[in-house]
Every structure is written in structure tokens, then in C-alpha cells.
Specification:
Number of strands: 13
Structural class: alpha/beta
Shape: globular
Bound molecules: adenosine-5'-triphosphate, magnesium ion
Order of helices and strands: HEEHEHEHEHEEEEHEHEHEHEHHH
Strand content: 15-25%
CATH class of the largest domain: Alpha Beta
């Protein structure tokens, strides 16, 4: 099979023929082409990039994104095209803007409940949350963790979803964790350290937790797992929280020393209302919401609700993830898609989110 396939320079030239309405320059010259991917696949070249614009201007840039996609599609040999329009962070947590050291994060949350215990040798703890079940929170947790690891960070994932722990399946780990020197050893999979409430019990499907039990189990996994050592601390621990915004969730986030949260939503209005509630919950305990991810966007559910909602909440929109059977299959097979296809479209989208999260958390 020989396609006439464009190289990066040709792709950039095509994008420079699309004019940025603000600067009057071509898109590449205007610095609006980020994370450009030009990858050969069986059916032709897949081309895509991320266009990051000020939150207030996403509407202005929607037609520009469409024009960029059309320009890429018009190149001979290009089979698949994706241009992701994301809003720049409107606000960063105070510790960044205040110029404090990242270590000072916990000292500047007035009224925040004092965390019971910070896990040893863990630099940052990030929660992945959703107001509603089944929106792809666990999928985002493992793939974001893999994207953070791809940046060279030391990353752990903690499955705190007492209602339906799914990280063992999604990362392909099983078996009770080993105890050594009073600590549980996390499983290692795809470069990630994995611990799940599902590994601590025999029958994960029959688990019914009440609030105190649930938070005790999670505190235990958080503080008694050997996430890092003095010599090699864990850079970031990604915590997959149980869905919902009830008492169990509130207790958990009060007891877990969180540095930030990412909220996952689907475009449906009902999920969005729940995303709002999740954001409110984090505001209550002074944990900064680092942004919103819209999952399963596309024909079925519509698109853009997440972005609009992020704007209303005043939190950054971190991007959208299309409904994609490959994402589900990879999860079912125990390998996060980001790890299975590090050069794919999904990996590229998560790389953008990972870059933002790493930047804001200072890792
Ligand atoms: N973008 C996507 N495209 C296709 N399938 C997806 C996508 N995101 C998630 N899925 C699939 O949808 C199902 C639910 O996703 P996931 O388990 O990540 O959601 P969750 O919010 O963690 O759910 P729960 O509330 O049960 O914990 C899974 O089978 C997953 O593989
Ligand atoms: Mg889940």
C-alpha cells in the first residue's frame, strides 16, 4: 500500500494557510498548533493537534478549528483528523500565583479540615471524581496516570471506588498485596503502582461499605501502601473516587489529603448537573478543581456541554474524549489505551491533560 502521505512540514504548511482571526497569522505561526501528531496508520495518515485558546474565546475559535480540520482533511493521504479546542486555564490554584513553594500547598487552605495523615513519600495527590456513575472516571484515572508516567513521573493509582473497584480489571492486576515491613506493596503494571480496594477483599462484587468502613479502608490503602521511598518518592498519586456527592464521598475527600481534583462528566445535562455538585463538594473542603473532562462526547450524547459547564463553573476545560470502542476494549483487556498506543489520538489528548495537571501541581 503506498499512499501519498504528507509529512509534518506539509501539515504545518497546510495549517499556516488557515488564518488566526486574532493575530492575522497562520495557525502554526501564531503558536496555535500544539502537540501535533502526524502518524501513519494502515488506512492513511492520522493528523491532529491541540488548539489552546483563552476560555472566553472558544466560541470565536470553533469555526477556526473546523477550518483547520477541513484543511487537514484536504491533504491527500490523510485518513483521520482531529483538532481539539481547549480553553486555557482561567485560574490556577493560589499556591502557584502566590509564588509559594509546592510544599506549602497544605498550609494555605484556610478552613480546610486537617488531613488525618499524608501518605509517606508521596508528593501530590490528585482525585478523579464524578457526580454520576459510569461516566468514565476510572478510564480517565488509569489513562491520565499512564500519561503522567509517560512524562517520566513516578505515578501511582489508588482505586478508592468502594462501590465498584475496577482498576484491577483495567490495569490487569490481581492477588492480594504483599505485606513487607508493615507496608503493603502496590502491584506494578504499565509503569504504574496500583492499589485497589478490590484487591483487599475476596469478593469484590459483593461489597457493601458503610461510610466509616469505606473511609477506613481508603485511609489504610493511602497511608500503608509503599507508594514511594525516601530515595524515590512518588511524584503523583491518582485517586479514583467513588461516584456521587453524598456523605460517603464527602467523608472520603475530607479524610484524604487532596491537592486537586479533576471532574469527569458526559455531555448529558443530567451528568452535568452532577458535575456541578462534585465541584461544589470540592469547594466545600477547599480542594481546587483543576478542570473538567468531557467523556463520551460525540454523536450519541452531543458535544460541548462539558466545555460550557467548565466556563460556568470558572474551571479550566481540560478536553474531551470521544466515544471510542478501543478505549473500552483496552480497559477490558487490562491495558490503558494510553499505554497500549502511546502515539494514538487518545494518548495525545491525555498528554495535554497530563501536562496541565503536572504544571498546576508543580511536579
Ligand atoms: N470514551 C469512551 N468510549 C468508549 N467507552 C468508554 C469511554 N469511556 C469509558 N468507556 C467505557 O464505559 C464503561 C464505564 O467507564 P468507567 O468504568 O471508566 O466509568 P466510571 O465512571 O469509573 O464508572 P463507575 O461509576 O462504575 O465507577 C467502561 O466499560 C469503559 O470501558
Ligand atoms: Mg469506576
Amino acid at each position: 500500500m503506498s499512499h501519498p502521505s504528507p509529512d509534518r512540514d506539509q501539515v504545518l504548511a497546510a495549517l499556516d494557510a488557515v488564518i488566526d482571526p486574532k493575530s492575522g497569522q497562520g495557525l502554526a505561526a501564531a503558536g496555535l498548533v500544539q502537540g501535533l501528531t502526524v502518524a501513519a496508520a494502515d488506512d492513511g495518515v492520522r493528523a491532529g493537534f491541540v488548539m489552546e485558546v483563552p476560555a472566553r474565546e472558544t466560541a470565536v475559535y470553533a469555526p477556526v478549528r473546523d477550518a483547520a480540520e477541513a484543511a487537514l482533511r484536504a491533504l491527500p493521504g490523510v485518513a483521520r483528523v482531529s483538532v481539539v479546542l481547549t480553553a486555557e486555564a482561567v485560574q490556577k490554584p493560589r499556591f502557584k500565583t502566590a509564588g509559594l513553594s509546592p510544599q506549602a500547598v497544605h498550609q494555605i487552605r484556610p478552613n480546610a479540615p486537617v488531613p488525618t495523615e499524608r501518605p509517606a513519600h508521596v508528593r501530590r495527590v490528585l482525585a478523579i471524581a464524578s457526580g454520576k456513575g459510569g461516566v468514565g472516571k476510572s478510564t480517565v484515572a488509569v489513562n491520565l496516570a499512564a500519561a503522567l508516567a509517560a512524562r517520566g513521573l513516578s505515578v501511582g493509582v489508588l482505586d478508592a471506588d468502594v462501590y465498584g473497584p475496577s482498576l484491577p480489571t483495567m490495569t490487569g492486576v490481581s492477588g492480594k498485596p504483599e505485606y513487607r515491613d508493615d507496608r503493603m506493596e502496590p502491584h506494578l503494571a504499565h509503569g504504574l503502582k496500583v492499589m485497589s480496594v478490590g484487591l483487599l477483599t475476596e469478593k469484590t462484587d459483593a461489597m457493601v461499605w458503610r461510610g466509616p468502613m469505606a473511609s477506613q479502608a481508603i485511609t489504610q490503602m493511602l497511608t500503608q501502601t509503599r507508594w514511594g521511598t525516601e530515595a524515590e518518592p512518588l511524584d503523583i498519586l491518582v485517586v479514583d473516587l467513588p461516584p456521587g456527592t453524598g456523605d460517603v464521598q464527602l467523608t472520603l475527600i475530607q479524610k484524604t489529603p487532596l491537592d486537586g481534583a479533576v471532574i469527569v462528566t458526559t455531555p448529558q445535562e443530567v451528568a452535568l448537573a452532577d458535575a456541578r455538585r462534585a465541584h461544589t463538594l470540592f469547594q466545600k473542603v477547599k480542594v481546587p478543581t483543576l478542570g473538567l473532562i468531557e467523556n463520551m462526547s460525540g454523536d450519541v450524547f452531543g458535544r460541548g456541554g462539558g466545555e460550557a459547564e467548565a466556563g460556568r463553573l470558572g474551571v479550566p476545560f481540560l478536553g474531551d474524549l470521544p466515544l471510542d470502542a478501543a478505549l473500552r476494549q483496552a480497559g477490558d483487556a487490562g491495558t490503558p489505551l494510553v499505554a497500549a498506543e502511546p502515539d494514538g489520538d487518545t494518548a495525545r489528548r491525555f498528554a495535554v491533560v497530563a501536562a496541565r495537571v503536572a504544571d498546576v501541581l508543580g511536579v
